[in-house]
Design a protein that fits this description.
This protein is an alpha/beta fold. Helices cover 42% and strands 19% of the residues.
């Protein structure tokens, strides 16, 4: 191999892998379709293997291409980091921290952490994305965000978490959320059998909480219809607030009292929920991102009234 490849070729390759074809990839990259084709041809010539085949008029990645993708994404990201640094060499340039979080920590933890961060880093920008747990992990793994705050992954998202560092900042027990006039409010504890004949507003199948609830209900021999599915626990609570049904969620979401007509009851058997901070295992955190991560950890500790769980060596 004559080593003609560079990070730009890997950037083009990864863009094609995440596009519907060369035309879409060219549009995303701001180059011609011919330039994309030339870069792919060079990669195939240099590696000595076919990376794509043509099937029904569309490019289909080969097994070799899928094997190469994670490393190619790393190379492409290194190019992006270098370009980012080049454009922010001016000391007056504002630095940004991008955070993705799902609803409970977004409501209960992030506001106070961001407020404190703004006091100590007034010139830094914070960009916040509201996503479900699987998307948060994917965003961190793909280096689309600096920090992710969410639940540990369900088994189908393990590939994403393999590219992340993580540590736990909070532990909660899942609760049943009910409208204050719902008949189950009379119970001190809600069990799987109690849910039968009531409308349960479910979270998506890929949600880590859904995986835990599903396993618990199966063990109890309870099958619930999924007549209503909300994409986030915030959506669940919005419907419970109107007495549409009941939900099973992380109680952290209710810590600020934003849903005045909702009450909670313990759910048994116990289902433990963890909230964790995620960041790239490849890309080092900027000083700003590290500071915000520390404030998030401290805000989680203050919410529960205990000291932070000692993280692993970072």
């Amino acid at each position: 191999m004559s080593r003609l490849l560079n990070s730009r070729h890997f950037q083009i390759f990864t863009t094609v892998m995440h596009s519907r074809g060369m035309a879409e990839a060219a549009l995303k990259l701001g180059i011609s379709k011919a330039a994309v084709s030339k870069a792919l041809s060079l990669m195939e010539r240099e590696t000595g293997v076919a990376l794509f085949t043509l099937a029904r008029g569309r490019l289909e990645p080969t097994a070799a291409a899928r094997r190469l993708l994670p490393r190619a994404e790393q190379a492409a990201k290194h190019l992006e980091w270098a370009l980012d640094e080049a454009y922010t060499l001016d000391q007056g340039s504002a630095r940004s921290v991008i955070v993705a979080a799902h609803a409970p920590p977004l409501i209960a933890i992030l506001p106070s952490a961001i407020q404190r961060f703004r006091q100590t880093h007034p010139d830094a920008n914070v960009h916040l994305r509201v996503e479900g747990p699987p998307k948060v992990l994917e965003s961190v793994a793909h280096h689309e965000v600096d920090l992710g705050v969410t639940n540990p992954p369900a088994p189908n998202t393990v590939s994403a978490v393999d590219l992340c560092e993580r540590y736990t900042i909070s532990e909660e027990l899942l609760v049943v959320v009910l409208h204050r006039r719902h008949p189950l409010v009379a119970k001190s504890v809600v069990r799987p059998a109690d849910l039968v004949d009531h409308t349960v507003i479910a979270l998506p199948e890929e949600s880590p909480t859904s995986s835990l609830v599903r396993a618990t209900l199966q063990e109890a021999g309870v099958v619930l219809p999924k007549n209503i599915v909300a994409s986030t626990s915030m959506g669940v609570c919005a419907l419970v607030q109107q007495n549409v049904g009941i939900g099973l969620i992380n109680p952290m979401l209710l810590s600020t009292g934003i849903f005045p007509d909702i009450v909670t009851r313990p759910f048994r058997p116990r289902i433990e929920l963890w909230t964790e901070i995620y960041y790239s295992s490849i890309r080092p955190l900027s000083p700003e991102a590290r500071a915000l991560a520390d404030y998030i950890e401290e805000a989680a500790a203050a919410l529960r009234g205990y000291r932070p769980i000692p993280p692993p060596t970072r």
